[in-house]
Amino acid sequence: MPDDVITPQDNAARAKDGPVRRHGPQPMDMHVYVTAFMLSAAAWPWARKPEYHDKVIGVLADLSAGMKQGLQDYQNAFHKAHRMQQHVIWQEGSTRLLLCPQKKPGRRPPVFLVPSLINRADVLDLDAGHSFTAFLMDRGFDVYTLDWGAPQDAETAFTIDDYILSRLNPALGFLQQKTGQASHVIGYCMGGTIAAGAISVLKDQKKLVRSLTLLAAPWDFHAGDALVKPRMHAYLANAEPVMLAKGVLPVDWIQMLFASIDPLFVFNKFRAFAAMDKNTDEARRFVIVEDWLNDGVNMTAPAARQALQEWYIDNQPFNGVWTIGKGLVDTALIEPPVLVVAATGDRLVCEASASAFASRHTTTITPDIGHIGMMASNRAIAEVWQPVADWLKQR
Fold first, then answer.
1. Euclidean distance between CA atoms 221 and 307, whole angstroms
2. How far is it, in rounded angstroms, from Cα 202 to Cα 197?
3. What is the largest CA-CA distance in the chain?
4. Half-sphere exposure for 357 (CA within 13 Å, toward CB)
5. For residue 33, what are the contacts with CB-CB under 8 A and spacing of at least 6?
6. Are 219 and 212 in contact (CB under 8 A)?
7. pTM of structure
8. What is the per-residue pLDDT across 187-219, written as a single tens digit (0 to 9) for each?
9. Per-residue pLDDT tens for 244-256?
10. Is 153 helix (H, G, I), strand (E, B) or coil?
11. Is residue 8 predicted with pLDDT exceeding 60?
12. Residue 292 contacts residue 376 (beta carbons within 8 Å)
């Protein structure tokens, strides 16, 4: 673990070097327009009444000014993430397997981290002093991270099946050959769904996988949202011309999809950031998480179509009809023990969706934390990281 843990005092000193200019949140035009539309719609019934008109205009101006200040503060923030150096030990196309080297090899079986396809793996090693990767290393595990990378020209035809069969599985096989041990596989968000499907159809499961941990991984894609199916139908229909033209689902379109879940989320969080003391760890982490969110990855069009149609519209994983290659994904076929972490405060993957995963040997915990909070919040260590580490040590 690096010894350059950053303190608020360090941040204040670094500010003298000047701000780092940012252009997020992406897509900026959409976030600003949606905020203006939602505020106007909420104010309309009152603004129509002459006696309230001027007061409503004043309230809207104050609210908008708060968001604007938060955006400016973020774009000019001096905070930068300090992460561990990682070595590439395997690569195929744009996908790499990364190792954080230690002075002494881990005493325990290796951990194989699987992030989402559409967000970079940096969230698993967020910053010096607050890193899930470093936390596991400190507890005796050698940690390997699957970095999917951004799709290159040769990969634009990749489906989710291709990512599993020609990237994840070979990397997992390489790790077994390198270490001589089966790995603890930990999948975060979409990475967890992919990892669970991959292991279900994998030969020699026990040789390659010691356990599976799913952090905020959706499984019942219709849980908690009765409108998800028609919304995804409409989204896919509108995204299709863009995917045909570009060969990918652009990251801005992915951001718009997430923003549709809570249209005022960006508005509220930047108003809150405007009020923060910028020399606190809370403000530092806000900036680093926001940088991560705005550094997403385009998704290949075939993989995007597959996820939208087969997962969100058809709900194939939960209905037991999802196939990978020639294999049917059946959670009953997963032999290693499984830990499901289904957060009660998760607005992207609700508790019911994540906890719907069930194998023969599943343990479920439900921390009161949010989706990104599993990696970024102050409570992540006590509510998620430590329980996960304790569970792994027993296996």
1. 10
2. 9
3. 76
4. 35
5. none
6. no
7. 0.91
8. 999 999 999 999 999 988 989 999 999 999 999
9. 999 999 999 999 9
10. helix
11. no
12. no
Sheet holding 362-365, edge to edge: 87-92, 95-99, 143-147, 111-114, 183-188, 209-215, 338-341, 362-365
Kindly indicate the confidence band of residue 50, based on its pLDDT and cuts at 50, 70 and 90: confident
Contact 154, 107 (CB under 8 A): no
Q: What is the DSSP string of 89-113?
A: EEEETTEEEEE---SS--SS--EEE
Question: If DSSP codes are grouped into helix, strand and coil, which group holds residue 24?
Answer: coil
Query: Could you give the CA distance from residue 349 to residue 314 in angstroms, rounded to a whole number?
Result: 17
Q: Which of the four pLDDT bands, split at 50, 70 and 90, describes residue 57?
A: confident
The two structure tokens encoding residue 72: 């400016």
DSSP state of 368: S
- Inter-residue long-range contacts of 101-105, CB under 8 Å, 24+ positions, other chains counted: 102/137, 102/142, 105/142
CA distance 286 to 376: 9
What domains are there in the chain, each with its CATH number?
8-81+269-293 (no CATH), 93-225+299-393 (3.40.50.1820)
| 378, β-bridge pairs | none
Task: Look at residue 17 and tell me whether its pLDDT is greater than 60.
Answer: no
Angle at CA of residue 70, ends 67 and 73, nearest 5°: 150
Q: Quote the tokens at residue 126.
A: 């967020």
- 81 neighbors 106 (Cβ within 8 angstroms): no
